[in-house]
Amino acid sequence: NGNYSHAEGSGTTASSYYSHAEGASTTASGTASHAEGASTTASGTTSHAEGNNTIASGLASHSEGSGTKASSSNQHVQGRYNIEDTENKYAHIVGNGTDDKARVNIHTVAWDGKGWFKGDVYVGGTSQDNGKKLLSTADIYFDTDGNLCVTIGGVTKKFAPIG
Hints:
Layout: E1 6-10, E2 13-14, E3 20-24, E4 27-28, E5 34-38, E6 41-42, E7 48-52, E8 55-56, E9 62-66, E10 69-70, E11 76-80, E12 90-96, E13 105-110, E14 115-117, E15 122-123, E16 132-133, E17 140-142, E18 148-152, E19 155-159
Parallel strand pairs: 1-3, 2-4, 3-5, 4-6, 5-7, 6-8, 7-9, 8-10, 9-11, 11-12
Antiparallel strand pairs: 12-13, 13-14, 15-16, 17-18, 18-19
């Protein structure tokens, strides 16, 4: 074990300075890293992996849930089986895949502040059941001629570019 590190549980390893591993088959190999749960790996410096089969390999990254991977610096990933970002494009990722071979992202936030949702977005209320749906890609899009198409209340309007 690493100097000033601590490992507890079954099959846990805390191999770097100030690292902490707990649970079952967890590995904290990054300096000041923390792995907890089952089969988690925190290999990035000051990284944190928790849950089941999660990996936090980026500097100061945090991975939680099941099968998630936080590979870029200062990145937070949650949910299950996200698409791995090795290019440091996203600050935040929510995964909703089913296994290692079927990784899916349902929400991302890029470092420039742009957010993306796989599904519709609702505002107000306490859930999508009583919130108001914002326009979705089915309601607003560009057609093949470059017109902006907007559908509201079942009526679609086209707006042509000027110039």
